[in-house]
Design the sequence.
């Protein structure tokens, strides 16, 4: 892995996220008050786009489709898919999986992701 330039700091305001293509991968870059974080761009539940998700609580992202929620700092599952009612039946087959996360560094106003 190597650090790849993904954006200027000012391109992603605090509280926002953006999908970036880096090293032949789609990466979701999230800017929280305490810094930048990067995760895989698709929810591990059904591979749907996390860019449509919402940043909630203290650095969590909630998938727009089935409401799985993850800590963007660690990738840990905070809550597994629970919407719409009945999705839990599918969860027996699609067990909990954390988000892949990537190291991020900021130098001279430029954001780099290790991917």
Sequence:
């Amino acid at each position: 892995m190597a650090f790849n330039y993904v954006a200027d700091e000012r391109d992603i305001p605090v509280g926002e996220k953006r999908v970036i293509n880096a090293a032949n991968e789609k990466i979701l870059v999230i800017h929280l008050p305490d810094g930048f974080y990067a995760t895989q761009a698709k929810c591990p539940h059904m591979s749907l786009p996390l860019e449509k998700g919402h940043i909630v609580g203290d650095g969590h992202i909630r998938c727009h489709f089935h409401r799985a929620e993850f800590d963007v700092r660690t990738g840990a599952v905070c809550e597994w898919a629970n919407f719409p009612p009945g999705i839990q039946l599918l969860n027996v087959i699609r067990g909990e999986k954390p988000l892949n996360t990537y190291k991020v560094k900021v130098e001279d106003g430029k954001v780099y992701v290790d991917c």
In short: The mean pLDDT is 91. Residues 5 and 112 are 4 Å apart (CA to CA).
